[in-house]
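Slide 14.
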Amino acid sequence: MAWRTLDNKLKIMQIFNHLIINRAEIKIRLKGGETEFISKFIKINQEDVLSEIGKRPELIIEKLTPEKGNILIQSSPEVTAEFLIQQSLCRCTLVHTGISSTYPHFGYILNFPESVEIAEKRKEERFLYENTGFVSVEFKLGEKSKDDKLYELNVFDSSKHGLSIIIPQKHFDLLQKIKVGDKLKDITFFSARARIKLNGTVRHKTKIDEGKHKGSYLIGIESPDIIENCKPMK
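Slide 15: predicted structure.
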């Protein structure tokens, strides 16, 4: 099987955000072993607005299944993670650097990879990570008083179960007001043909380090009914 290498940090971050939002199952192979273990990426640890600059992001995965893997990873910290994106097989090499014991993210801390390999397909079937149609969202924080601030934000990417929205510097106050796991109510999602209002859960906050949105942040919002509840614009 032929592989191509993706080394664009922003696109790699986008892939892991997608896996976290969709709670996608991944396969873990320990170095030198043939046995496959099952896990999921559950969080990206990255500096927030007030933290020291230059710290590399880290990934957190759930504990491995079967249980034997949780013993073996201690003596063989280098692992290969395999997962599917848009029906394309992807893999990357990661190193176990610690244990996450902070609720609700119990599992293993891994280094953020420099690259991800993607299995080549026929040209017309190649990996594409596309926006599925939603272009912006708006919501208020608080108890629906007239003084609540309205946030109108652009969508960076979206999937069947959620999306990432761009937080520019003028809205950095939002990063301090919400945390991973918070529930956001009455979010209005806009596309060219639809407007839907749903609740969502914050799944990650991630800094953008390159490209035209460099310096801004992404907030990942999970909402399982995002596609099924689409209604025509009135």
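Speaker note: Residues 134-222 form a domain with the Thrombin, subunit H fold (CATH 2.40.10.220).
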